[in-house]
């Protein structure tokens, strides 16, 4: 193996290990933070650039996830363009993504009155 190839390979390996460390550190920081603990946030790192994706409940949680990731040593920049805020008004039920039936075609509530159960 030529020396140049070995140096290139070792540099790439070192970068991959560094990215894996950053990913693990960001994931654990998000998992142990009270603000983002229950959220499903995916983390990918490439050359120190961290990409966050998934859904959070509020815009504030999105900002907190970005801030927490940015606080990790070695993070160069954050891409949170795929981190979506999913707000559900109180008393409503969230729709599943890619739901096949629309709201107009949904059958009325199947709850029976007390008289129908007897």
- Described by the principal axes of the CA atoms, the overall outline is elongated
Helix content: 25-40%
Query: Might you state the CATH topology name?
Result: Histidine-containing Protein, Chain: A
Question: How many alpha or pi helices?
Answer: 3
* C-alpha end-to-end distance: 83 Å
Question: What is the CATH top level name?
Answer: Alpha Beta
Query: What's the average pLDDT?
Result: 79
Strand order of the largest sheet: 1-2-3
CATH architectural arrangement: 2-Layer Sandwich
Radius of gyration: 22 Å
Poorly predicted runs of 5 or more residues: none
Count of individual beta strands: 3
The proportion of residues in beta strands is: 15-25%
Class from secondary-structure proportions: alpha+beta
Give the biggest beta sheet. Answer: 3 strands, mixed
Number of domains: 1
| SSE topology string | HEEHEH
Region (Disordered): 83-118
Pfam families: BON
Organism: Metapseudomonas boanensis
Domain BON: 18-87
Any overview of this molecule?
The structure is a single chain. A hairpin with a 2-residue loop joins β1 (40-46) and β2. Strands 1-2-3 form a three-stranded mixed beta sheet. The protein is built from three helices and three strands; from the N terminus they run αββαβα. It is elongated and about 60 Å long. The protein is of the alpha+beta class and 118 residues long. The chain has a single domain (3-89), classed as 2-Layer Sandwich (Histidine-containing Protein, Chain: A), CATH 3.30.1340. The protein has helices at residues 3-32, 59-70, 114-117; strands spanning 40-46, 49-56, 77-85.
């Amino acid at each position: 193996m030529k020396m140049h190839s070995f140096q290139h390979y070792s540099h790439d390996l070192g970068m991959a290990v560094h990215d894996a460390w950053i990913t693990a550190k960001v994931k654990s920081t998000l998992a142990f933070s009270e603000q983002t603990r229950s959220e499903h946030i995916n983390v990918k790192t490439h050359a120190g650039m961290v990409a966050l994706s998934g859904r959070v409940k509020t815009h504030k949680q999105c900002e907190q996830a970005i801030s927490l990731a940015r606080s990790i040593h070695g993070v160069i920049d954050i891409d949170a363009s795929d981190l979506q805020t999913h707000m559900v008004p109180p008393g409503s039920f969230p729709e599943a993504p890619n739901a096949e039936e629309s709201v107009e075609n949904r059958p009325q509530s199947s709850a029976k009155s007390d008289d129908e159960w007897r």
